Amino acid sequence: MPNLIDTIDIKASPEAVWAVLGDLAATTDWLPGTVNARVDSGTRICVMADGSEVHEQIDNYSTTARSYDWQHLRVALPVRDSHGRFSVLTNDSGGATVVLEMQFVPIDESVVGEVTTMIHGAFHQSLESLRQFVEHGIRWNAALSPDGPQSG
To answer: Which Pfam family, an example, fits this chain (predicted)?
Structure first.
């Protein structure tokens, strides 16, 4: 079972980062491909640009610890039992470090390396998009807009 850990430093207070990351329906601002999001009975449902839906069970949500656990109930990835944790920490410069941890089981073990590389790249892109939104107000879909960057 691959165990991925990715981090990104954000030039904002941990509280400001948590205000975005902890708002479970705000993924439309920063999570690439997300066009609609809602939370229903502890499940975050994200509608993606291609019409697919990602369902995540959210557990251990803590404003004090600035973290939550998630488990994919439905996701368009070649994996099963995918789950992880988002955490927002204070870094040495007084800004925030976001930690994204994930574990999963590839459906096809023969391509574990390729699947791991793909997922790691997508998760890093998500963290970079979060950084751009928090630091500059640039939404993930800014480059798609005919009017240029859109701020939140």
So the answer is: Polyketide_cyc2
Nearest residue to 40 via CA among 74, 83, 86: 74
Per-block mean pLDDT, blocks of 10 residues, the chain (152 long): 94 98 97 96 96 97 98 90 97 97 93 93 95 95 57 50
Whole-number Å distance between alpha carbons of 147 and 143: 9
Give the CATH H-level superfamily of domain 3-139: START domain (3.30.530.20)
Specify the pTM. Answer: 0.90
Could you please report the per-residue DSSP string of the chain?
--EEEEEEEESS-HHHHHHHHT-TTTHHHHSTTEEEEEEETTEEEEEETTS-EEEEEEEEEETTTTEEEEEEEE-SSSEEEEEEEEEEEE-TTSSEEEEEEEEEEESSGGGHHHHHHHHHHHHHHHHHHHHHHHHH-B-TTGGG-TT---B-
Tokens of 84: 């992880």
Domain edges within the chain: 3-139
